[in-house]
Amino acid sequence: MGTVDGHDGAALDGDRWRDAGDRIETLLESSSVGGAAARERAEQLVREVADLYGAGLERIVGMLDDAAIERLAGDDLIASLLLVHGLHPHDVTTRVRAALDSVRPYLGSHGGDVELRGIEDGVVRLEFAGSCRSCPSSAVTLELAVEDAVRAAAPEITAIEVVAAEPASGSKVIAAESLFSRVHAQQQGSWIAVPELDEIGPGEVGGFAVAGVAVLACRVGDELFVYRDRCAACGDSMAGAALHRRLGFPVGDAVLRCPSCGAHFDAVHAGARVDGDGHLEPLPVLVRSGELSVAIPAEVAG
């Protein structure tokens, strides 16, 4: 199994610039020790430097064609700088829609989807659809994926709200207002870069240790799915599991068989058990800053 700590190379660089705002605020707070005047001077210094770099960035953007600007906007760090200085080529609605498109494959693995219902006064209104709304364990990881993607694309938004969808007859659905509160009531998890996931080919299964958590990853066609490495039936590791297609099912069907107890889980649809109750614990996997990354919820890592 590979070991990934999320603290080397590109992952470290990504963590550094994402935390830059917190570091700047900490430095400004320390300036307050010298009194109000000292803090004002520090804030003015930050503004002057930001304005200088902003003016230079505006000139650079003015020299580029649309294709080059689009490439710049595709980089998380550069996109954030373009947003700060009002130079991003896309409005907030376009950016939020693109963010939702980026997580749809993951939502689809839960048999669900998400739609943008509007953005007003900085509040993004979303509606979840499909079976993902009725799965409590999926709700936490879905929130991690959706909120992280939306806030990265549109940092200027102030809140994300989930509007209620009509439940199917007889179904048990998570209340819309509680979907996002499930994670907010506990510590947020962390996105960890796992470049080794790129090495998994179609039909292959691999085990990794991510931030001290054992995970199982598999690729079905072009799609990558990641689960916590723990059988929902017997509690043992799924190490050694292989992908199988069920007899009579179409191409694209894929189940994981627990080597210990023989329980079968649908690898494509949230790890649902196909020969009993329960399901594997899915973990979001997205491309962040150009690298495949896995979200490890705090209660799992802890």
TrEMBL record:
User: Does this entry carry the keyword Lyase?
Assistant: no
Q: Which InterPro entries match?
A: FSCA_dom_sf (IPR034904), NIF_FeS_clus_asmbl_NifU_C (IPR001075), Rieske_2Fe-2S (IPR017941), Rieske_2Fe-2S_sf (IPR036922)
- Look up the coiled coil feature and give its residue ranges: none
Q: Pinpoint the Rieske domain residues.
A: 192-294
Instruction: Cite the entry's keywords alphabetically.
Output: 2Fe-2S, Iron, Iron-sulfur, Metal-binding
Q: Identify one Pfam family in the record.
A: NifU
Entry keyword annotation includes Metal-binding: yes
Q: What does this protein do?
A: May be involved in the formation or repair of [Fe-S] clusters present in iron-sulfur proteins.
Please give the name of this protein.
NifU family protein
Upper lineage:
Bacteria, Bacillati, Actinomycetota, Actinomycetes, Mycobacteriales
